[in-house]
Amino acid sequence: MKTQYARRSQATAADSLLPSATPLQLIDADGHPGDNPGSLSLPGPDVLVELHRRMVLGRRFDSQSTALAKQGRLAVYPSSRGQDACQVGAAVALRRQDWLFPTYRDSMAVLTRGVPAEETLTLLRGDWHCGYDPYQYRVAPQCTPLATNTLHAVGLAYAATLKNEDQVALALLGDGATSEGDTHEALNFAAVWKAPVVFLVQNNGYAISVPLAKQTAAPTLAAKGIGYGIRSLLIDGNDAAAVYAAVRASVERANASGAAGGGPTLTHTIRPYPSGGASYELELYLAVDKCEGLPRGFYHYDAGGHTLVRIEVREPEFEALLKGAEFAMGASAVPQILITIAARFSRVSWKYSSIAYALILKDVGVLLQTLYMMATDIGLGGCAIGTTNIDLFAKMTGLEFHVEGPVGQFALGRGVKSESSC
Ligand SMILES: Cc1ncc(C[n+]2csc(CCOP(=O)(O)OP(=O)(O)O)c2C)c(N)n1
Fold first, then answer.
1. Are residues 250 and 286 in the same domain?
2. Is 8 contained in some domain?
3. Taking the CB of residue 358, how many other CB atoms lie within 10 A of it?
4. Same structural domain, 175 and 315
5. Residue 331 lies in domain
6. Residue 168 near residue 94 (C-beta atoms within 8 A)
7. Which of 270, 293, 315 is the last residue before a domain boundary?
8. Ligand 1 atom 20: the closest Cα is on which residue?
């Protein structure tokens, strides 16, 4: 009888740690009440307005930073795009005395926490320091070594309990980082010590470009919590209100640690949004998505509007460009989609355009590799072709090659012989 009772209470305790089967949601994609609020409650109007305001500012900052990285003015900028709701919801949910432990991908959370934009970008410009005073904002430097920030967060939170200070640490991590040994150690000790930590896993589906299924077999990342004895939540990561409510409740609960039995929470947000892995994923998804059904022709990718805009080109050279790609690939037909990457040198004098060209080629190598990995992952055939005839491109578009010239080509297709290409 006693054993049965013990088993039953163990089961009840375990059940209380489990995440919901489907993501909790307070507001759906159309702005209506979500149909799975679970134990979350909708924040008040002031908080909702603040979440929206911060997301608008965050998106503007993110687009500008992405442009600066593509211009070579930042060393790198891992975009927060599509993770806006997660990062803003989580950062706004923290109290003044709490600490944020962000990764390289969490610049929007850092900005939302109050760090000025130019200070947020210092590290990503290549400086040796993070540009801001972590103690002033209670934001640790953005961490590039994966998952090490989870241990820092547990250390700070545990120290706070030893010092009897009311502080909670929020560690942000990606889906890939959950496969790191450091995450295991952090979750384990956070649970054993009942440290006031919240782990927020932002699942964007890829560890840069490695898909989730290739690095974990867990049914959801929230399911990882129970093995450590950590209460876990599964949240819709596109719902800022739900992320806010979940993190806020977890902060309050973590804060009641010790005899009251608080401790860590693992929150897993799902973000079904095709961007955020590497810098150029969006362009590839766009090419695949928007090419479907387009008339054959030459299109310019308008980054601002995320659209393909048709431009008039000379047909014989266009034809020759496609034939050149077919020849370079050793294919039996012209590619269904041929992406020509062109660099614009219009503000550089001809004397320096060759230096600019050499620098750009380095980036193009990375870009082609990303396109290849993304294409094969979504079941398409991809072939990097490199730079083809500059003269041909110049004649086709009417642009001098020291104004704008091709720096790489990438063919994309479904492996069926087709006459249509764009
Ligand atoms: C300890 C460590 N190992 C490997 C890397 C190389 N690396 C950089 S990003 C990355 C994938 C990270 O995936 P995820 O946590 O899902 O973040 P996201 O894809 O959102 O950037 C890897 C393996 C690293 N930075 N640190």
1. no
2. no
3. 9
4. no
5. 281-413
6. yes
7. 270
8. 174
Domain assignment present for 388: yes
Question: Which ligand 1 atom lies nearest to the CA of residue 148?
Answer: 1
Among 237, 270, 303, residue at a domain's last position: 270
Position in ligand 1 atom list of the atom nearest CA 144:
25
Ligand 1 center to 129 CA (angstroms):
20
415 phi-psi bin (left φ>0, alpha ψ -120 to 50, beta other): left
Does 82 contact ligand 1 (Cβ within 6 A)?
no
For residue 7, being part of any structural domain is answered with no
Q: How many CB atoms lie within 10 A of CB 301?
A: 16
- Closest atom of ligand 1 relative to the 178 alpha carbon: 15
Nearest residue (by CA) to ligand 1, atom 9, is 208
Who's near 13: CB < 8 A, 6+ residues apart? none
357 in any annotated domain: yes
Question: Is any atom of ligand 1 closer than 6 Å to the C-beta of 176?
Answer: yes
Q: What is the pLDDT of residues 10-38, one digit of tens each?
A: 655 788 889 999 999 999 989 999 999 99
SS3 assignment, position 227: helix
Convert the pLDDT of each residue in 95-146 to its tens digit. Answer: 999 999 999 999 999 999 999 999 999 999 989 899 999 999 999 999 999 9
If asked whether residues 302 and 383 sit together in one domain, one would say: yes
For residue 178, the CA-to-ligand 1 centroid distance in Å is 10
**Separation of CA 183 and ligand 1 centre (Å):** 12
User: Would you say the CB of residue 174 lies under 6 angstroms from ligand 1?
Assistant: yes
